[in-house]
Amino acid sequence: MRRASFSSCVAAVLVGAVLLAPIAAAQDRTTAERLEALNQETRQQLNGSGVADFVWWLPTEWWRLALSGNETVPEPFLQRTEAALARYTLVLIAHGNASPDTLTWTDETALRAQVALLDRDGRDYSPIATELVAEDARAAVDAIRPSFAGLLGPAGRNFHFFFFPSTTDTGTAIADPRLPGEISVRVVNQRYRWRLPLGSLLPEKRCPVDGERLNGGWLFCPWHGDRLTSID
Length: 232
Fold this sequence. Notes:
7 helices
């Protein structure tokens, strides 16, 4: 177990925005906005009742949005990275027990035994042992790992990447972020759920009443109740 100040926990929940700021600055505004929207949809956190959790699902699409427009990342390298990580469901998790003044983080070995991925039918999947993860997939994650440690100091070492399966035993995708479905991640006694598709990965839709551009994953306007239309 490692101890960090409670202020480190606050910094931790902001890691996504801090980490991605230099990358987004090099992108066109549309890509940067889509990346931020995707981050908002895929990150979940809990700070209360003596628990501090941070759970970030990183679908394969995240890598292209995060790295596109970065001239130091060649397209062939990006394609290889996408192919390597498409074989897994990658989730970044931190878990701590909080008191008014301190936060006790759970180390990776202990946390590995307390997390699971759940598909839409409630079947659970344990993290894949690190030595069984393909070398190219491990290398991609190892490349960004220092960014967390460097930005957050000791707190960054308590954010752990877990590789889960991407398909069921029958070969069906556990989670396609562009198709209807659901996945969850269980961290100790808490469950974090994502309803799919992720609107940030779909073209926006338009409300037929006032023309407002809305989340591509929605079917109806939440204010007028009318079915949303595609934007040509």
